[in-house]
Amino acid sequence: MDLPCVPWQDHVAQKWAGLEPEFRERFKSLLEIQDVFEGALSVTTQDDVKCLRSISAEAHRHTQKDGGEASACRERGNASFKSRKYTEAALHYSQGVCLSPRSSEQLSLCYANRSAALYHLQRYQESLDDVSEAERSGYPSALAHKLEKRRAQCLARLSPSDARADQKERSGMSPKVTVQFNPEKGRHAVASETIAPGEVILSERPYGLVLVASGGASGCERRRCHACLKQTWRLVACGGCSYARYCGARCRDAAWEQHHRWECPLGARLAATGVLAQLALRVALKAGIAGIRAAAGEVAAAADSPAAAYASVFHLLHHLERHSASMRFLCAVTVATLHLELGATGPPPGWRMLAGAALRHLLQLRCNAQAVIALQERGLSDAPVQSIEERRVATAVYPKLSLLNHSCRPNTSLTFGAGGAVTLRAASSIHAGREVAHCYGPHSGRMVAGQRRRLLQEQYFFLCGCEACADGKEEERSQGGQSGLLCAECNTSLLLVLLHIWNPTEWSPVNQPSSGGDHSCGLCGGAWSGGELSEMLQDIRRDLDAAGHLLESDKPGEAAALLERSRTRRRAGVTLAHTHELCGHTEDAVARAHAAKGDWSRAAEHLERSGAAIAARFGADSVEMARQVAKLAQLHFNASVRKKTENVFFFFGVLTLWRVTHSGSRAAALSVIPEARRLLSLHCGALCPEVQELQAMEDCLRC
Q: Please, which residues bridge with residue 503 across strands?
């Protein structure tokens, strides 16, 4: 998960292979983290530093200030602005702000132009803030009248602030949960009394996080604060590099104090070492020497001190002895190379001990890092058709959440809020004495048991024995023919071909699936190779990708036609059952295409079919089904009211604005909205924005 880039992995692998056998054997025998770091440091040289710089040279150039590139970004923004693509323009101007040298005229021009884009996006306070920044950055006096005019326009449109005071944030574990220990499970959470569905079990802020770059003009690294993850069109740049950006001076200054003053000179070289290495370094820098010494027991720390909070991270299992020798060497040489790099640019106090702690955290994070998921738009919101999807926006470490064990069929669900804060809720009733578990990634709705157990063994070093893996029913279903693939002639499920082989251990014959994933029809005897079926499924995925591009290009009619052909086509004599994952994705995309055309009724019809696939995979009360029912509620609402036609938005969540064109079934909307509200309240809480919006929709329909 988020290992260093492949060229760096190859370099370190070659280095490991070229070491003397005596050193490799000695390195393998090291059992203390600091000894592993010192051993790697003893063979890490300036050649390794040069190699890392060479690998990241091109990317590193793009993290530096560049007035010429800033000017080019501003020109691209101007072109988008003239086309009235104001969101796209704001992103280009923001990139220009980040690339512009401090106190340059180019910086002032980018601020001024972004203020104009924000004004047209009706973000008047942010536009005002950019007007002030343009003036502070030396905006040409001959053009100052433009800023004064925009300031007056913004002030005229600003309404009195109705912002509420920040509510006191809850944190910690529910009193209904106790942390227990046994040799088989280690530390784990158990319900001490019954926990009701939807009840909050844990609320926690991350000890550290790193935003995950997704690339492109609309990547989350260009839209979200690198410290608190807030999405904004008015990002504030780091004064030293063009990559790091923040929602405001407060986040920027806090990040600089905690870690960025040492990260800034490294630029893309740090990115080349991987997200986990960057997060490990941040955690160590935030803790500092005092925190590390206190966690190691060298000095005392108050129970409510920052050092005490760090101790829970420090003592997470690092599984040093379970990582392969080559993986230990890769992690250790990566940290040792950063040690040499920072040693040349001005290291923090106690850098050698900090580096050892960073290695400790890098090994821990391979098993304890948590993906931070957020609903985010695909592409730019100026597009005529827009989807929201769940997307990983950061990687973080949560000390208390890390205490929970994994289940492939979890009894909890996670949501993430401001600053990456996580909330864990009961997804179903958890009775006293039952373990509280969440999913590390491999889920019974997405993977078969064998694949899940292999992945968990490789990354987390345990053989999963959760109910989903232990009950055997899932394997019976997959081997019994419920593959989601149908014979086009007989309309019956294809059976996975089983080989009758002798098991010498049990002295009995057993049935095992063929290694190639071959299937057959039990009625007509038709047979299909695994490769043939794999190509068929890949063909469907290609159609879905092509339809997505057509929708983003405002061609919903062409997208709907392509998807309809794909949906009804018989490929190699095989069709998809309505419960198959790709059938669900196809129906969902068809619904999106019809919604883009304003045909809400047909969109709802296809979305209901998509919901059947989701319910079959994840369950009728799952968070995945909650999102689907919320979309269905939005479609029925759109079909029930009339408003002025604007851009059409169809999200993989719910709409934040009601922009509808046709009348339709009010009764259908009123029947679906309560169920959507119930499911979202269960997983996200009754106060989440989506639930509040559903309530407002219902109130509107009942007026």
A: 508
Q: In whole angstroms, what is the distance from residue 682 CA to residue 187 CA?
A: 27
Q: Is residue 496 packed enough to be buried (19+ CB in 10 Å), middle (13-18) or exposed (0-12)?
A: buried
The amino acid occupying position 99 is L
% the chain with pLDDT above 70: 85
What's residue 657's pLDDT?
Answer: 34
* C-alpha distance from residue 666 to each of 140, 536, 657, 662 (Å): 56, 40, 18, 12
The count of other CB atoms within 10 Å of the CB of residue 173 is 20
The closest of 633, 649, 546, 631 to 588, measured between CA atoms, is 631
Q: How many CB atoms lie within 10 A of CB 333?
A: 25
Residues 6 or more apart from 146 whose CB is under 8 A from it?
112
What average pLDDT score do residues 366-394 get?
73
CA distance readout (Å), 445 to 407, 408, 439, 448, 652: 12, 8, 11, 8, 19
Q: How many other β-carbons are positioned within 10 Å of the β-carbon of residue 620?
A: 12
Check whether 646 has a pLDDT greater than 50: no
Radius of gyration of the chain (CA): 28
Q: Which two tokens stand for residue 539?
A: 């063909």
**Unique residue bearing structure tokens 């899940």:** 452
Q: Which two tokens stand for residue 533?
A: 């079926």
What digits encode the pLDDT tens for the residues 258-307? 999 999 988 888 889 999 999 999 999 999 998 999 998 877 666 566 67
Give the C-alpha separation, 171 to 451, whole Å: 35
Range 67-156 classified under CATH 1.20.210.10 = no
Per residue in 158-211, pLDDT (tens digit) is 866 533 334 445 568 999 999 998 888 888 999 999 999 999 999 999 999 999
The CATH number of 171-205+405-471 is which of 2.120.10.30, 3.40.50.720, 2.170.270.10, 3.40.50.10420?
A: 2.170.270.10
Amino acid at 223: R
Q: In CATH terms, is domain 537-702 a member of 1.25.40.10?
A: yes
**Do residues 64 and 267 lie in contact, with contact meaning Cβ atoms separated by under 8 Å?**
yes
The answer to whether 408 and 449 are in contact (CB under 8 A) is yes
Beta strands 405-406 and 435-438 are parallel
- Structure token pair of residue 660: 């509808």
Domain coordinates in residue numbering, the chain:
13-51+208-397, 67-156, 171-205+405-471, 473-528, 537-702
Q: In the structure, what pLDDT confidence band is assigned to residue 654 with cuts at 50, 70 and 90?
A: very low
DSSP string, 389-438: EEEEEEEEE-TTGGGSEE-SS-SEEEEE-GGG-EEEEESS-B-TTPEEEE
H helix intervals, 296-324: 306-314
Q: Indicate if 537-702 has the same CATH topology as 67-156.
A: yes
Residues in CB range of 448: below 8 A, 6 or more apart: 474, 475, 478
